[in-house]
Amino acid sequence: MSNPNVRRGVASTRMLCGIAEEYGLSRAVCLRGAAIDPALLSDPHGEIDAIQEFRVIANLLAALAPRGVGDIELALKAGARYHLTTMGIWGFAMASSATLGSALQVGLRYLDLTYSVNRIWLEADNGPTACLVIDEQSAPPELAQFVVLRDMVAVMTLNRELLAAPVLPRSVQLRFPPAPALIPQLRAAFGCAPSFNAARSHLEFDLHLFAEPLPQANELMRQSCEDQCRALLARRQGRSGYAGRVRDRLLRTPGQMPDMDAIAAELNMTARHLRRLLSAEGTSYRALADEVRQALAEELLSTARMKMDEVAERLGYAERASFTHAFKRWKGVSPSAFRG
Question: Which end of the chain is least crowded, N or C, by CB within 10 Å?
Fold first, then answer.
């Protein structure tokens, strides 16, 4: 699952500006109101937040709509340009995995290092197929179709590069209204015509595809890249302001997190005032507590050989079932499936 509160690299925004320039639009048009310094797009370590990229996407869609370029056409063009080589250490971690399935696990584990603003998870119920579900609840409604289709096409692009061969879905389900005029373009992108007005958006693949070995598999490289992914994600999840102070306090005793009243007292203010301060920074006590527990849960499940009951206890859950329920809410999969 992707957390829109985590800062992200500028590669995606730079690519969107490149597409705009192909249509004769200036970079200034794309960045209008996004509070992004154009020089930042040339910084390999530059970072922005999801709200800024939403503004860039909205600007691009608004500027191209009068020219007859809709969000579907733009999403197909954008998704095809997200390559492993443009995804930084996250892309290298996937490419060095043993199989397509293990690469997908790594990719979803560190999804917050990518451009995506969607919740994405894999569902496999012991049948012949598995569904990669893409949920865009974090995106503004007017951008929902764009971010879903962009991610779907990017999945197709990355899978093809991982296996050095096309990886076609069995079916494509979209929860959006039909777009008959664009069926040929959608069929060309996915290898099949999508179904519309579905309950949710997902790509359905034959399960055996996830067992396919990757040509660049290298276990030592994967471990090294995943270590770097973990460190980078921890840095991006760091916060400043009062949110940072609350997060640091929660990290001190993750198994016995103080409530909001206790933290407010430590900061010499009322809980109501702290709530207002956190709201002004775009977060809340509950969101920060969830963020801390999620980050620690992923760390323990990825690196420690602890039993699931021990992980739950370390994070302050009285029962394993409560921890499992919370983890599914965060990541869309159970702790056991995440650990693999």
Answer: C
Answer whether residue 29 is part of any domain. yes
Q: Which helix (H) or strand (E) holds 171?
A: strand 171-173
pLDDT of res. 3: 57
Residue 258 three-state SS? coil
User: What would the two tokens of residue 119 be?
Assistant: 């919740």
132 within 8 A of 122, measured Cβ to Cβ: yes
Say how many C-beta atoms besides its own lie within 10 A of residue 214's C-beta: 20
- Domain, as residue range, for 168: 8-211
Question: What's the half-sphere exposure (Cβ side, CA atoms, 13 Å) at 314?
Answer: 19
- As a whole number of angstroms, the distance between CA 309 and CA 302 comes to 15
Which residues in the chain land under pLDDT 70? Answer: 1-5, 237-240, 303-304, 340
Domain-ending residue, one of 192, 211, 230: 211
Q: What is the pTM of this model?
A: 0.74
Give me the CATH number covering residue 322: 1.10.10.60
